[in-house]
């Protein structure tokens, strides 16, 4: 059964039944013992009251001989002669055992109490079967209230459980009211301390979902806006190609169309990379890796672009730098940093990538001798689609490179810092958490 309410109710009923059974058992046993002791006390008192009495009066003898009386009184002389018996009985005890005793005569067991005086012996006897029946009746009557109280307690317990689970019902109702357009936090006032951590965790999840949805909506809006221009340009270039009057014009239009397709392809690729690096996107599980090896592999993809621009690309990564992370995402981070350094620096630039471990913290640095970025703009370059206009670099970028770097860094708990480089341009430093 998956219902928490019914689990609690059944557990409470089981506890009540077990408690009632144990309590009833102890009560029944104690009442039996107390009743037996009371009956023995009656036997003793009756025998002792006759011990100090002389002759038994006829009226008293008639009362003791009543057939409805469970007790049988016998009196013997010191020489064993029967002086008195309350009534004739085929299986009366024929001898007396001083004090309390059980005597079996034929098929019947008697509980007796006998006392002796100077000239006679008095015995009061009672059938054991009658004593047990009376004791059992008294014990059952003492247990019967439990049979009525237990169901009432079970119903009360079920009501208490239902009342206690009302905060959960309110939380469920609140969650059902939320959707992608309304992810406001759930109220936490009046919640039990056991439920409050759950609601707080759900509120944190709602906040993260809201941020993720906002990011997705912003991404879709930005992507639609950014794709509109290159697609329009491609349409215009295609029309120019169709209207080209001669072979030279047609070749120029084809070359422009090819460049437009290449830029659009790069923009789409960057958009897909950014989408994969966003918080909440499906990502590969982190693995143990060597950051120096990851950067070395990533820089292989940038070598053709560096050669095409006549730029010099240098990697300083002599020692392994172990850490834990997503190999593919870290490769994208390193490649984008180096690609930006090459793209926004003049042709023939010098770009140096360094991977090291500083105090157990993995660090990636990329330096160039380009125009750099003014301090006032360094925080803005991590925004999506933000492009700086400069005279020395290529302006065909998508404005997503550093946004992707920042997103991958956040996923790895890293900090990206931009500063002036000793080479004269920009230094980008990515300092990861202590993953060694």
UniProtKB/TrEMBL annotation:
EC number(s) from the headed UniProt entry: 2.7.13.3
UniProt-recorded name of the protein: histidine kinase
UniProt topology in membrane: Multi-pass membrane protein
Keywords assigned: Kinase, Membrane, Phosphoprotein, Transferase, Transmembrane, Transmembrane helix, Two-component regulatory system
Pfam families cross-referenced by the UniProt entry: HATPase_c (PF02518), HisKA (PF00512)
InterPro entries with a match to the protein in the record: HATPase_C_sf, HATPase_dom, His_kinase_dom, HisK_dim/P_dom, HisK_dim/P_sf, Sig_transdc_His_kin-like_C, TCS_sensor_his_kinase
Cell compartments where the protein resides: Membrane
């Amino acid at each position: 059964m998956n219902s928490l309410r019914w689990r609690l109710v059944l557990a409470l009923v089981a506890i009540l039944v077990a408690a009632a059974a144990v309590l009833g058992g102890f009560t029944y046993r104690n009442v039996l013992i107390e009743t037996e002791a009371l009956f023995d006390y009656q036997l003793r008192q009756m025998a002792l009251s006759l011990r100090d009495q002389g002759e038994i009066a006829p009226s008293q003898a008639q009362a003791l001989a009543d057939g409805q009386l469970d007790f049988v009184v016998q009196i013997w002389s010191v020489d064993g002669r029967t002086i008195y018996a309350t009534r004739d009985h085929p299986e009366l005890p024929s001898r007396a055992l001083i004090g309390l005793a059980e005597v079996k005569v034929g098929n019947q067991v008697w509980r007796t109490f006998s006392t002796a005086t100077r000239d006679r012996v008095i015995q009061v006897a009672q059938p054991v079967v009658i004593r047990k029946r009376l004791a059992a009746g008294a014990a059952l009557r003492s247990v019967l209230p439990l049979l009525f109280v237990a169901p009432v307690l079970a119903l009360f317990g079920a009501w208490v459980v239902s009342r206690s689970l009302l905060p959960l019902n309110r939380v469920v109702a609140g969650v059902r009211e939320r959707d992608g357009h309304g992810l406001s936090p759930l109220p936490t006032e009046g919640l039990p301390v056991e439920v409050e951590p759950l609601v707080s965790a759900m509120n944190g999840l709602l906040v993260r979902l809201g941020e993720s949805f906002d990011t997705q909506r912003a991404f879709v809006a930005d992507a639609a806006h950014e794709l509109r221009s290159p697609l329009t340009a491609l349409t215009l270039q295609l029309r120019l190609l169709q209207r080209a009057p001669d072979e030279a014009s047609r070749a120029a239009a084809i070359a422009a169309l090819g460049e437009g397709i290449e830029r659009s392809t790069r923009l789409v690729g960057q958009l897909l990379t950014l989408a994969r690096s966003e918080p909440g996107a499906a990502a590969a599980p982190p693995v143990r890796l060597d950051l120096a090896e990851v950067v070395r592999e990533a820089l292989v993809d940038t070598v053709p672009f560096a050669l095409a621009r006549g730029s010099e690309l240098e990697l300083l990564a002599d020692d392994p730098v172990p850490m834990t992370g997503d190999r593919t995402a870290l490769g994208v981070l390193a490649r984008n940093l180096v690609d930006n350094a090459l793209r926004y620096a003049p042709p023939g630039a010098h770009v140096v990538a360094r991977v090291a471990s500083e105090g157990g913290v993995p660090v990636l640095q990329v330096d160039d001798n380009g125009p750099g970025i003014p301090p006032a703009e360094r925080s803005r370059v991590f925004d999506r689609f933000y492009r700086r206009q400069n005279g020395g670099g290529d302006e065909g970028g998508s404005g997503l490179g550093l946004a992707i770097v920042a997103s991958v860094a956040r996923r790895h708990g890293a900090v990206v810092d931009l500063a002036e480089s000793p080479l004269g341009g920009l230094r980008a430093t990515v300092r990861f958490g202590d993953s060694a």
